[in-house]
Amino acid sequence: MHLYVHVPFCARRCSYCDFAIAVRRVVPSRRFVEAVLQEWGGWQTHPVWASSPRLDTVYLGGGTPSRLEPEAVGALLAGLARERAIAPDAEITLEANPDDVTPAGAAAWRAAGVNRISLGVQSFDPGVLTWMHRTHTVGQVGTAVEVLRAAGIHDLSLDLIFGLPEALRRDWSRDLDSAFALGPDHLSLYGLTVEDHTPLAHWTARGEVARVDEVRYAAEFLAADDALRRNGFEHYEVSNAARPGRRARHNSAYWRRAPFIGLGPSAHSGLNRERRWNVRDWAAYDRLVGNGAAAIEGSEQLSEDAVALEEIYLGLRTADGLPAGRLGAETVARWVDAGWALQGPTGRVRLTPEGWLRLDALVASAAALTSGA
Questions:
Q1: Is the pTM of this model over 0.70?
Q2: pLDDT, tens only, 347-356
Q3: 81 with 226, same domain?
Q4: Lesser CB count within 10 Å: N end or C end of the chain?
Q5: What CATH number is associated with residue 221?
Q6: What are 92's strand-pairing partners?
Q7: Residue range(s) defining the domain that contains residue 123
Q8: Which long-range contacts (CB under 8 A, 24 or more apart) does 249-255 make?
Q9: Contact yes or no for 305/371 (Cβ under 8 A)
């Protein structure tokens, strides 16, 4: 069993962000912990625990979990463990912004059980950080890494965004080199997308920002893949790469369709075929939980076809791939000939970086063939 806790609070909204966040100057840390633990208590009678008695990973995402008071992180993890055992070797991740990392905070996180940090770097270009509405400086990134390691947190992941508008003149290769120079165990690389109701969407609609063209987007993705391999990283999922043995265990559980529970506003849970999700707004979530009501906004039971499609999509996202029998010999041969896939000696098929660039289209074609459409 794997647990995700959505911490919605942020100092400001980034220009590209459409996540469920709550911009707060003062974060209601104590009330957030109380609400999440109250929701957590309601999960303890769910029948899924019959086969998954303990937590193997815990992931505090957001939003900006590092905006919580450090003591609140400890209270949250201790409260979770009172209801359900956390495995001794559990991966416990906290997402953090570089400007939130302090020696006292990092020490408190480590003492609470946090053993992995996902650091929201995004770029090492000051102009790009300003354009993104990020709250940290370039200098704070290296300082944060040093502070975290000094506190005993050595499993570090850095987030970067590629595919930015050409007018920003961002040097993608230099950003990658700057990330490698910090010696992280893991990198997450996300292509910029224009989401509705974001500042970026408004800028684009007004013609102030031009979308990156597909050729440049693809070139940056392939350049990253090459740089990752040259620096000893395994590009094990479309957006994620790690040094050998340092894959993100929590995220890998999603791609295997392992059971996971989500707590907090907008959090999703997946238990075999059951899917459920919470209300998006923090105030609405707090009000419902405070009144003893469920914070669930909706749920569904996946059909067999939906499960099959999900398995294909998730399998092709990863370097582990899928058994060739899930795709059909003709499809596999066509993809291999086009350079979009490789078939190993065991018969498993995995997409190449060129194939990952076409992931959605390839999944749709594979799903149509396997369903007989």
A1: yes
A2: 899 999 999 9
A3: yes
A4: C
A5: 3.20.20.70
A6: 58
A7: 2-255
A8: 249/56, 249/57, 249/91, 250/2, 250/4, 250/57, 250/58, 250/59, 250/91, 250/93, 251/59, 252/318, 253/2, 253/56, 253/57, 254/2, 254/314, 255/314, 255/315, 255/317, 255/318
A9: yes
